Structure formats: C-alpha cells, structure tokens
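Q: Hi! First time doing this. I have a protein sequence and I read that you can turn it into a structure. Is that right? Here it is:
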Amino acid sequence: MPYSGRCPGFCGKTMWWPAGVGGEEFIVLLPNTTHRDAADIMTRLCSAVARHSFDWEGETLRITITAGLGQCDCSQSLEKCLKPVDEALYKGKQQGRNQLVLATART
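A: Yes, that's right. Below is the predicted 3D structure, encoded as structure tokens:
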C-alpha cells in the first residue's frame, strides 16, 4: 500500500513512498525539485535515520539508508528512468551502505 505524505520541518516537500518496490526498497519521488536539492534532502534523510534508534519488540534497533539518486524525464519510460538509479543504489550497498550515490545519466 503506498504512503503519501509530507515531512514538515524536514524537507517541506510532498513525497510519495510506494511500498513493495523490492523487499526493503522504496522509491521517493520529489517532484519539481532540483538535483542538488534532492541530494541535500536525501543526505539529510540518511543522516536523520542513522542517528535515530527504533524500539521494536523490546529491542533497540538502528538502521541506515543507502540511496541511489537520479532525475527522470517525463518522456522516458519508468523502467528506463529507474535503471541507473537502481544501479547507483546497488553500488552504494557494495561500497558499505549508509550513503547516497548519484546515478549516471543515460540518453
């Protein structure tokens, strides 16, 4: 089930987080956001999550986010748009996680 909401005081933008993209993977869409602003938002999100502890079933858990970041053109298919972003995500996971990796643009 998709979740749509704002993160007030954090990024001031509406974001959509469709669940079930791939197990532990989510897509964050930031419409009308520059690449630089999106990188800043995602870097701050990664840092905020890494600093937070989560209580679950009597245990304290700490998690991190590894993110691939790219820009999509409305003329591209979703698959073509997300492929380099997905590759950036996996590169980040291979490099040690808890980081943002910028996707290489393709034409």
